[in-house]
Amino acid sequence: MATPESVNYVKRGLIQMTANWSFNNTDRSAVQQLEKFLPAKIYDIHAHIYRVSDLNLSKPNLWSSGPPDVSIPIWKEHISRFFPGKQVSGGLFFPAPTPMADLRGENEYLLEQLEQEPDSRGLVLVTPDFSQEELSAYLDHGQIVGFKPYHVYSSERPTNQSSIRGFFPEWMWKAANERSGIIMLHLVKDMAIADPANQAEIKEMCRRYPHAKLILAHAARCFHAPHAKAGIEALRGLDNVWFDMSGICEPEAIKTVLRQFGPRKLLWGSDFPISEIRGKSITIGDGFLWIDSNLCDMDKLGSAQPVLVGIESLRALHLAADDLGLNARDWNDIFYANAVRLLSLKEQPGNLLKELHLHSKSRLPGSVPHLGNKAGNMESSPWPIYFSEARGCEIWDMDGKHYYDISSNGIGSCLLGYRDADVTKAAVRRLEMGSIFNPPDEVELADLLCDIHPWAEQVRFVRGGEEAREASIRIACATTNHTVIAGCEYQGLSEECSFKYNDLQGLQAIIDQYGPKLAAVIMEPCQNGGLETDFLKQVREATSRCGALLIFDETSMGWRLNYGGAHLQHSVRPDMAIFGNTLGNGHPIGAIIGTKAAMEGVHGLFISRFESICSAEAAAALQKMGKIDVPAHAARIGGRVMESWRRNGEKHKVPINTSGYPSMAHFSFQHGEADKLRTLYMQMMLERGFLADMWIYPSLSHTEEIAEMYNKAIDEVFGEISSIIAL
């Protein structure tokens, strides 16, 4: 139903077929196409309300082309047209930031309007000239939850090239931090979030004031879509940053936010009354352009009938969400639940992680998922069991808590980091092309493996490291027509068929006992942080003499020491080598590579096929690892972590021992209560945002910056553990 104010500006003749503030049949048809994707409840995180008389405009513009009082009821009337049949439950409101506005009048009008809307919240429009007393008085209002700074009030000129501190000084960050307040930030400078100075200032302030909640308006002002790809990733790891997508009319920037931060960090906003402009913003050249009535005569567009910006923005969101496969829960998060959580409008449900864990135990007998953490199977473990998102070395649990994974990183298999962009692109391409049974990607991958391992001639793929082990043993038995398998400190083999690392006599005893029945010796080419080339050569000679095959198991080291596996660092050629999920950067694939003679037994065996998409993922992973020295990076980060363990252990007199390769590093407490100290350490690290156990398998996504944050946390935690040990 139209309000008296809306009737007045209709009578003034401002609404025409292509006019702003109107809603025509083209708009209605566009909304109907989007309706089925939208959730039942809507919360607008970015909307302006104001009195035109407070704006002190020098000439008419969009702000003055609507009703004289742009109230919350006016907002609701217009926004509800985008969501027929849905409940528009509230919004986060703030005044119109015009250069000569009466800020006191604008903010007082905001307070008056909020009094009538208990489910809505507001941000006061602020300038650097505000006093702390004036700001505190506004923040004492129960519905004011933070600040809306804007560049037109900057002390720097020109204001559209201002630093953030030019219009939002640090003392305001501190005030937001003290009250867990929201900052709605409209970035400026030509490159917006792609500007290195903007990135640096955001990271510095967000880390210094972690309780301040920063919303980067307009997807970090990425109206020029390439800025999103160039800049948003730089903010990864900041858990107090959100994005609204108000006014964004192209899907690319929204997709970048979703890829880098996920659906729980994106909020729908209308940017009302910008949502009432007929037209859209587009990327053009090295900037962006608003196609609206200021640019062209919208009545002369012929068959192209423009719709409102609010609808174009919804279209862009739909395209982005559809491309990324978002589900109904994600849509509800973006349009409603994220805002409710951010604004603390409702008491949140209990521990979803714990509830899901308890339910899984009744539904999945004997199966409790974990990330390579044995403590994950123990009731007393503080380790989160289920996770909703993972990117790089960052993980989010079911309750939205953020952690850096300073542990196994996908049981050691995600050497490039979780959801690596290149591997993901390869997976999406194969899915889009069709996940066929015999993809050409597997031939490409087989050729790549044989190029990396010149001694190998043939490849067989399976679905993981365990299957690769089992299949290699079956192949060896079929090829040699023998049945006995010996192993070097290898799990799953009988004691009489096992020998220790560097124990050539133990191997010879097995050969002497089983002789012609020995099909193969399977072993890791390195253990416990040391490679013994002479021992490997002696094993090679011994197996060759007795007619047994030599299988190198590279599933654990996973290319961490060398591109292609640890055995390539030595001039020892096995008959077969096996690899696990590291091939696909954590995706389920395994491989057995070998000489043609060693692989002969394959032809008489049934070996399960692997999912075809995994060959595309693995090819992308290996190609990327071939261009970047990932083992050197992993060793550098792991070495830094090991040094942190040792240095802080000595500093705080915490008895520890470090072991292993830097790229697969371990430490242990040398104390009578070591198990309890381990649990305590894990809990303390979780409280500081680190998923940490007694080891780290570094990935390409672990940066020096993350390693330093972990070092500071280790310093604190070892200090507390030292105090407990001393009791």
TrEMBL record:
<dbReference type="Pfam" id="PF00202">
    <property type="entry name" value="Aminotran_3"/>
</dbReference>
<dbReference type="InterPro" id="IPR005814">
    <property type="entry name" value="Aminotrans_3"/>
</dbReference>
<dbReference type="GO" id="GO:0008483">
    <property type="term" value="F:transaminase activity"/>
</dbReference>
<keyword id="KW-0663">Pyridoxal phosphate</keyword>
<dbReference type="Pfam" id="PF04909">
    <property type="entry name" value="Amidohydro_2"/>
</dbReference>
<dbReference type="InterPro" id="IPR006680">
    <property type="entry name" value="Amidohydro-rel"/>
</dbReference>
<dbReference type="GO" id="GO:0016787">
    <property type="term" value="F:hydrolase activity"/>
</dbReference>
<feature type="domain" description="Amidohydrolase-related">
    <location>
        <begin position="104"/>
        <end position="343"/>
    </location>
</feature>
<keyword id="KW-0032">Aminotransferase</keyword>
<dbReference type="InterPro" id="IPR015424">
    <property type="entry name" value="PyrdxlP-dep_Trfase"/>
</dbReference>
<dbReference type="InterPro" id="IPR015422">
    <property type="entry name" value="PyrdxlP-dep_Trfase_small"/>
</dbReference>
<keyword id="KW-0808">Transferase</keyword>
<dbReference type="GO" id="GO:0030170">
    <property type="term" value="F:pyridoxal phosphate binding"/>
</dbReference>
<dbReference type="InterPro" id="IPR015421">
    <property type="entry name" value="PyrdxlP-dep_Trfase_major"/>
</dbReference>
<protein>
    <submittedName>
        <fullName>Aminotransferase class III-fold pyridoxal phosphate-dependent enzyme</fullName>
    </submittedName>
</protein>
<dbReference type="InterPro" id="IPR032466">
    <property type="entry name" value="Metal_Hydrolase"/>
</dbReference>
